[in-house]
């Protein structure tokens, strides 16, 4: 398993995202957190992929070679309101976001710190779901084709627990 430099905690995310003034960026990072998607998947979302009635969004699987592979992901009421307000401002574009992957990466660093890349968000969301005791099959809905890929988040959580226990100083009784 590859080492993850930093796990972004939900409280840290919430505090940082509140300070983002630009609506586009707040929508981007809230969507990244709520869906755990790859940044390239988010940047390929078209406005027609957002279902405001059902509070869902269709996300194309960009890593899968199967034509039309996608998943439907629920979004919160708060995110729905943000997306709706943001997307109505830019009626001339089919895409929700008109930025490049590198720009999204740079925004992530600017808002969240040098070790908070879009990939870190994906890992952090998965770890947060594991810690919230969400079923592993539901976590697999992040877009993994095989369960063993998703399983690595359980292994990471176990490693975190071992490291935490090793650092803990027990006083003799």
Describe the model.
The structure is a single chain. The chain is mainly alpha-helical and 173 residues long. The protein has one domain (10-165): hpI Integrase, Chain A, CATH 1.10.443.10. 53% of the residues lie in helices and 7% in strands. Helix 2 packs antiparallel against helix 4, helix 2 packs across helix 6 and helix 6 packs across helix 8.
Give a concise summary.
The chain has a single domain (10-165), classed as Intergrase catalytic core (hpI Integrase, Chain A), CATH 1.10.443.10. Helix content is 53%, strand content 7%. The chain has helices at residues 10-18, 23-35, 39-43, 77-89, 101-112, 118-131, 136-140, 147-167; strands spanning 50-51, 56-60, 70-74.
Summarize the SSE layout with pairings:
Elements: H1 10-18, H2 23-35, H3 39-43, E1 50-51, E2 56-60, E3 70-74, H4 77-89, H5 101-112, H6 118-131, H7 136-140, H8 147-167
Antiparallel strand pairs: 1-2, 2-3
Question: Descriptors for this entry?
Answer:
173 residues; mainly alpha; hpI Integrase, Chain A; 3-stranded antiparallel β-sheet; 53% helix
CATH architecture: Orthogonal Bundle
Shape call: globular
- In the CATH hierarchy, the third-tier topology is known as hpI Integrase, Chain A
The low-confidence runs, each spanning 5 or more residues with pLDDT under 50, are none
* N-to-C span: 37 Å
| Percent of residues in helices | 40-55%
- Overall CATH class: Mainly Alpha
How many domains in all? 1
- What portion of residues belong to β-strands? 5-15%
Number of helices: 8
The topology string of helices and strands comes to HHHEEEHHHHH
| SS class | mainly alpha
How do the strands of the widest beta sheet line up side by side? 1-2-3
Question: What does the largest sheet look like?
Answer: 3 strands, antiparallel
Strand segment count: 3
User: What's the CATH H-level superfamily name?
Assistant: Intergrase catalytic core
Backbone CA Rg: 17 Å
Please state the average pLDDT score.
79
């Amino acid at each position: 398993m590859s080492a993850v430099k930093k796990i972004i905690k939900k409280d840290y995310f919430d505090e940082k995202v509140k300070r983002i003034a630009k609506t586009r960026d707040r929508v981007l990072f809230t969507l990244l957190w709520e869906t755990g998607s790859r940044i390239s998947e988010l940047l390929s979302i078209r406005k027609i992929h957002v279902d405001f009635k059902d509070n869902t969004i269709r996300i194309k699987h960009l890593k899968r070679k199967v034509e039309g592979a996608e998943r439907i992901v629920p979004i919160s009421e708060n995110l729905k309101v943000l997306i709706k307000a943001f997307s109505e401002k830019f009626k001339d574009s089919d895409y929700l976001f008109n930025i490049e992957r590198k720009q999204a990466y740079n925004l992530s660093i600017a808002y969240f710190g040098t070790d908070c890349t879009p990939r870190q968000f994906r890992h952090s969301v998965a770890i947060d779901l594991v810690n919230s005791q969400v079923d592993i099959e539901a976590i697999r809905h992040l877009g993994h084709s095989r369960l063993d890929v998703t399983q690595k988040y359980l292994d990471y959580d176990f490693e975190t627990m071992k490291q935490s226990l090793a650092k803990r100083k027990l006083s003799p009784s």
